[in-house]
Design brief:
Length: 139
């Protein structure tokens, strides 16, 4: 609890929010909430609509992430964030960046003869249904 309070204090000095990731500990009393890497509420805000989606069943029980499709590739981002799990070899990152072609359909490189392209069935999750809210004296 002392460590969490210290981190919250430091973050506050820089106007940053702290959230937990897949943690069962409750820290809301000190202003630390449970976060979600794949956040349905944020997606709804960005899409300006409700989405019909479930919790990701492949994650730990305490994880709040919803189901998603990963479209990235390891060792492709040049930002170099120290906490990032997606980059583990800087030399490979630089080699992959050299292969980048903005007109290619791939994140980096080109489609080669050894590559297999498969169509993936996806469905829209946005719920465009209008909903009415009951007006109460408190509203």
């Amino acid at each position: 609890m002392q460590l969490a309070e210290a981190m919250k204090s430091i973050a506050g000095k820089y106007d940053l929010a702290i959230e937990t990731c897949s943690e069962e500990i409750e820290l809301s009393s000190i202003g630390i909430t449970h976060g979600k890497c794949i956040d349905d509420e944020l997606v709804e805000e960005l899409c300006r609509g409700k989405i019909r989606i479930e919790k990701d069943k492949n994650q730990r029980e305490a994880c709040g992430c919803v189901t998603s499709i990963d479209i990235g590739a390891y060792n492709t981002c040049k930002h170099g964030c120290l906490y990032c799990y997606a980059n583990y070899n800087r030399d490979i990152v630089l080699k992959n960046f050299e292969k980048h072609n903005p007109t290619s359909p791939l994140l980096f490189g080109e489609v080669g003869p050894q590559d297999k392209i498969s169509e993936r069935k996806v469905k829209k999750l946005i719920d465009k249904q209008m909903y009415f809210t009951k007006i109460t004296p408190e509203n």
